[in-house]
Amino acid sequence: MSSATVVAVIVTYEPGPLGGLLGALIPQCDAVVVVDNGSAAPGLERAREACAAHGAELIELGENLGIAAAQNRGIAAARAKGARYVLLSDQDSIPSPTMVAQLLEAIEEDTRIAAVGPLPAEEREGADELVYVDRGWSPKRATKAELARPRLEVAFLIASGCLVRVSALEEIGPMREDLFIDHVDLEWGVRARRSGWRLVAVPAARLTHSLGDEVVRLPGRDQPIHVHAPIRNYYILRNTLALVGRGSPLPARWRVRYSYWAAKYAVFNAALPDRRAERHRMLRRGLADGLRARLGPYASRYPDR
Known about the structure:
By secondary structure, the protein is an alpha/beta fold.
């Protein structure tokens, strides 16, 4: 088998049509692997049909193991194909026709670049541009001036659209599976930088990205606030608290800022009228588990839901 240069790994969960994403990625990559994270029959059948039609490999996990575990399974499959680079993607992102080539050009400029990412932009009014730079106390969105640069050193890269060097993964390690979903990319990025690797954004490379959340616009605030489902309230609060606790890989100054942010996040979401009782329950459980660093899938801790 010839050695593949770039293998795309797409993680799906109850996906809609995948033809657009596969059609955009297959011409740009040497192979595409889809890892389905325990979708029910309709979503799984859509994934099967799309992979068969486009010649992509499908890995069916049979249960929801979380985004990190699914990425790790896909990365293992990509390495088995001889990949030098792995392009991570979720099911709700569409790359521009030149995105992979632009990322590949950037990552090959320096052998100490662990990963490069595009400029992910949401498809809605007031859309976030999800590139984060180190502002000292925490990662913050890049400014317009920074996004005008051809290359930008970043604090971490969001997973979707991220091109990762396989040799860097061997040194840094895999995605952290006990986080399950939120902050997986943040935690890996912190480990990468602590190990002396670089993370670089390529703003000219574009990715249309959908977070799937509702947003709230507050007076005097340019950036929208994303409103997550109650189960995500649990994971976001829990994982934030776990990452700022004892033995945290985060810089000390980030831990201070993320602790403050976690308090704001809990107060804001507790005040939302939608599914208030459920949100309060999830936030209480996220607080308790985060402070004790009790991680893993929510269902394994609370089988009664």
